[in-house]
Description:
This protein is α+β, with helices and mostly antiparallel strands and about 625 residues long. Among the domains are: about 285-440, no CATH class; about 455-515, no CATH class; about 525-624, Methane Monooxygenase Hydroxylase, Chain G, domain 1 (Up-down Bundle), CATH 1.20.58. It has 17 helices and 28 strands. A hairpin with a 2-residue loop joins strand 27 and strand 28.
Amino acid sequence: MSRKFSFSVILSTICLMSASCTVQTVETTAVSVQTEEETADEETSEISKVSESSQPSELALNEASTADDTGEEMLDSIDEANPLPSQELSVEEHRLEFAPEYMFGEIQTLMSERGLQWEAYYNVSGDRVDMYCEDGTKLMFLASGKGFNRVPLKEMALIMENNQFYQQGFQSVYQVDLEQSADLDYYPQTAEYYVTESELMAMNQTALRIALHEIYARHGMQMTDPFLKAVFSQKTWYIARYEADDFINKQESLLNKYEKENVNSILAVQKKRNFTDDLEVDYSIPRSIVDGSCIDLDENGSRDKIEYTLLYAGPNAAAKSCVVYIGVFTPGKYAIKGEIEEMIPAIYTASLDGKTKQLILCGKMGDGKQRTEIYVYQNGETRLAGVLAADNLEIMSDCFWAYQYDEQQLKKTRVKYIFQNGVIVETGIAEAVGDDDGNDSIKMGTLIDSLDFEDSRVVYTEVVEALERAGVRWESEPNSSGERLDLRCDNGTEFVFMETGLDEKELIMTGSRLSEKGFVRVFKHERDASPKAYYYPQTSIRLLAADELNKMTQTELSIARNEIYARHGRRFENSFLHAVFSRKTWYKPKYEDTEFFGMVDQLFNTYEKENIKLLVAAEKELRD
């Protein structure tokens, strides 16, 4: 079986947040030095496949968290850190005791005080860090928030110490996104309706994994992964009945139609974003290094501390380059200074030859072309092994492929290379690559994660500029009354903009994510947007007057009509309507369309029946 690594270079040049960016110090994620067999054991799911379509795909490189600093002159002014020696330290009595309320920064301080080395790596989407300590302790941290909005590395919560689960930390991370009641599911919707790709693309790697395995847990599958076992053991309904192999044979009869389809949908999104935890894959993944990790790069038996710093051109600019220090930190001196002009804010490590580890920097040059720089470290010296005009690599046991994308011709090719004696050698073999590689979906997932429309306004022109930078094709269309604008991308993702009484249409919805504050701004003057109230309570207690209908926009007419349906439990496939009513505590979806419309006479009262006719007529008049 071949061993390969793969990753996609997804340059996140999108910065729609209102907060300004300054020069920053990178913080990243951890994974320990392990044997190949141990790594495979940890990354393999209890159920490695439910869909036969689960195949290796490109890995979306995650954005790294950053901390503030100023300008490129920092190279000569950074205070000297306390360097760790490159040789291994004796563990002896160094084992630490951790408290459940600890965060990454506090534990990092404890390590420094004890003189202990550690190495740590982010997962693909950057929401999880695995740290491996010199004394043999393995720690896991999780971050709340998505994309650029997640908390800094130092504030990531301690979730597990070896096999010990810290519920307090888990709840602090997921108190908003997951149902914490012990009697309820984390993601009840996976058993109640077909979850859209947009909803799944907005979820990070850990959240997707919990959603997938909750479907299995509902029906009694035993969890062998310590994290998943701990997560579902918090629920009173979880009773482990079946071992994984037994569950596979029974799942067809156990899962309902929504669960079966949602399993396949989740696996498909994991494949597109290369979240390999639950896929049957025969490769490992290049890891994003946490700043401060001690790693044996040249496999000589000693570890060297790796520190790196991003350089920024100014506020709101993408990282233009990176400097990397290896070994003993010396101010003003560095082992690597990347020449990339717009850099993905992290450094990665992988083994191109199966023997030593290389450091990888990725990003774009000023002309927009992708650039990947590969460095080797031997005998205390670092040198550039090669530069590739590539947007991702796929690393096999005996070779690796560099993928090159022509944005003008919309074509992708891959070129075969080998890594030999510390040098990258082109073989001359090139192949055309089909379009079904999930690249647009990966870009879209990165873009959606980066939109900060919960705490600040994001307007139409900002999203259009971001889509163009990401190379995503789109079209937009206003509705009949002009207060709403729908933007649709080629891959099916939709953005909804509405007038909020300000100068430009505001982003109200991205994929399946509704901006609570933006939506309330739309309805703040005329409609009750609180979660417990109806938008249009009058539709069930009296007939609507003609002057009321004449003042309503097309969006208002649609919400008023569909609210009558929502009151009585209709499920909505339309993502906007689903989001609009899901924010209401009274909404309990029960019926599919076929069943629902067969029950209209017994569900609706007289006012509701007549008001539906009035609303439909008013909508038709606007469209005509």
